[in-house]
Amino acid sequence: MLKIADKIFTSRLFTGTGKFSNSSLMREALLQSGSELVTVALKRVDVQNEQDDILLHLSHLQFNLLPNTSGVRNAKEAIFAAELAREALETNWLKLEIHPDPKYLLPDPIETLKAAEKLVKLGFIVLPYIHADPVLCKRLEEIGTAAVMPLGSPIGSNKGLKTIDFLEIIIEQSKIPVVIDAGIGSPSDAAKAMELGADAVLVNTAIAVSENPVQMAIAFKMAVEAGRMAFEAKLAKSKNFAEASSPLTAFLD
Amino acid sequence: MTFRDIFESYNWDETKASIYIKTKTDVEEALHKSKRNLEDFKALISPAAADYLEPMAQLSRQLTLKRFGNTIQMYIPMYLSNECQNICTYCGFSFDNKLPRRTLTDEEILQETEHIKNLGYQHILLVTGEANQTVGVDYFKNALKLMTPHFSHVAMEVQPLDTDEYKDLVTLGLNTVLVYQETYHKEDYKKHHPKGKKSNFDYRIETPDRLGKTGVHKIGLGTLIGLEDWRTDSFFTALHLNYLEKKYWQTKYSVSFPRLRPHAGGLRPKVDISDKELVQLICAYRIFDEEIELSISTRESEKFRNNIIKLGITSMSAGSKTNPGGYVVEPQSLEQFEIDDARSTKEISEMIKQQGYEPVWKDWDASLVSTH
Fold it and tell me: Is residue B31 situated within a structural domain?
């Protein structure tokens, strides 16, 4: 069972709420995905409006909201947005994302570390979106983030686990949950991430933009479960070298 | 260094020729790459690419979906003033056009605001002519103070300003500035802007640089299609964009492609662009720059707008009025240009939904900017 902060998750598939063609379809796809943690951009919701379309469609016992700070460019802006999200959405969970580069939306490691440190002290459950940088992950772990969310490839790129070699190091070294976020383009990418030992994956574009988001959501659900099951069952190691019929070390026996 | 230094190393006629000699092979190469450069953009806007319109549209759609999903950002213009000291051959507000001039008062701005808010808009575009005495920086500061509490995203399309002036406005909550070069053909630019501050081509071409220095959230570029060869003008827009994206890398960019529209005392376009060619241009921008926001206004026809949604456009206005007070204060005043698609916001919103897209009303929050 996956535990982040004080919350237990039966589903290891976290989801996003952007890019869907309408909110009812979003709700249906997310329900079918089994996802229990859904991230929502503060900039997309109207917190003054009790009838906000996105929030109304996310009000369901299955969903825990994970507000994100998409749009901020530095630590100062992130902290301000976080406080606003906590007050408006009544949760201290936060997906911290600081991407000053609006083109590729790549995360700023320096500002993220600064903001995370402050936010942890302010009582937030911080899940930072970062590059697949093993040292940064350890630094975030030390300051008390609840998990780390390294990227597989740039947001929305559907390119899969381009950072796989670094993700493996992160998973090996981490004492806090590792959620692979961004770039997961297909269920097989998600399964692969889970086989590596990731604690969870976060998927948005690949579900929202598919021709049948509900069916794709179910496919991801199954892939994440299969990948996790394979990880727990311990994959047979692929062999790097043949077993020689006349071993060179046989004389030692 | 500014963009002007780069721009001045180019020659219009040579650049134009380099676009027109692009071949089908160049187009195919551009389509098959995973990252495209400015030479590929030339191929995509060249006459040779006309035969590849369908594959270009397919690719453009696929790339747009990946980045922007099934969504269309909604915005609406609010004209604050039609006072203008410039003579522009193509514009209804030109100084030499005899028409009643009007600048909205505080109360009128709030009346228009209320109407627009009730339609559901959160993203607004403020538009004026250029009359620095009456509609200068102080007027803009006041307008922003009045309006930022009511909208989550405020854009402006007004005369070019100095860096410090932009800084003040950004501090007051201005998110985006649109500044179109109209044409990058320097001699023709002079002909179309014979009088007023706007006749200074160099000051205008350096405006995005002045804006970039302020850290403004978004800058909009474009040329007025019809003044000069659209392919060459579009290349220079792409060159400008490419320069800005590298230099002011924390700023977002958008591109629009306004076609000359009829208006009182209007100019006939020197160069026509067909619907097919405009689609080619839109797809070319998308394939060249997967992350750029592409915007289409009510200048275009109903049929064109209905069909362009799936081809790469990411934001759209609806029910626009191009006269100050046009929504409620004084609906009958003279407009800057005749819009074509006159459907209401509700009708456009329904049309977007029918196409399988979600009209997005809010995609920004004033609280996200620390200067605020």
Answer: no
Q: Do A102 and B252 count as a contact with CB atoms less than 8 A apart?
A: yes
Residue B32 within a domain: no
What does the DSSP 8-state code read for residue A43? G
A7 is catalytic: no
Task: Select the residue of B245, B367, B368 nearest A103 (Cβ to Cβ).
Answer: B245
What CATH code is assigned to A2-233? 3.20.20.70
CATH of the domain at B282: 3.20.20.70
Residues of A with CB under 8 A from a CB of B: 18-23, 42-46, 69, 71-74, 76-77, 80-81, 84, 100-104, 156-158, 205, 208-209
- Residue A80 has its nearest CB partner, among B353, B362, B370, at B370
Mean pLDDT of A124-145: 96
Q: Rounded CA gap, B279 and B345, in Å?
A: 24
- Which tens digits make up the pLDDT trace of B82-117? 989 888 888 888 888 888 889 999 999 999 999 999
ipTM of the complex as predicted: 0.78
Across chain B, what does the average pLDDT equal?
A: 92
Sequence-distant (6+) residues with CB within 8 A of B208 are B3, B179, B219, B221, B240, B244, B248
3-state SS class at A214: helix
Q: What are the chain B neighbours of A77 within 8 Å (beta carbons)?
A: 368-370
Domain coordinates of chain A in residue numbers? 2-233
Range of the domain at B80: 3-8+53-368
Q: Say if B96 falls within a structural domain.
A: yes
Task: Tell whether the model's pLDDT for residue B291 goes beyond 60.
Answer: yes
Residue B208 has what pLDDT?
Answer: 97
Question: How many domains would you assign to chain B?
Answer: 1
pTM > 0.90: yes or no: no
- Yes or no: say if B61 and B355 are a contact pair by the CB < 8 Å rule: no
A115 backbone dihedrals φ, ψ, rounded to 5°: -65, -40
Looking at the partner chain, which of A43, A102, A104 has a beta carbon nearest the beta carbon of B368? A43
Taking the C-alpha atoms of residue B161 and residue B219, their distance in angstroms, rounded to an integer, is 14
Mean pLDDT (whole number) for A162-172 = 95
Interface of B with A in 48-77 (CB under 8 A): 65-71
pLDDT at B372: 43
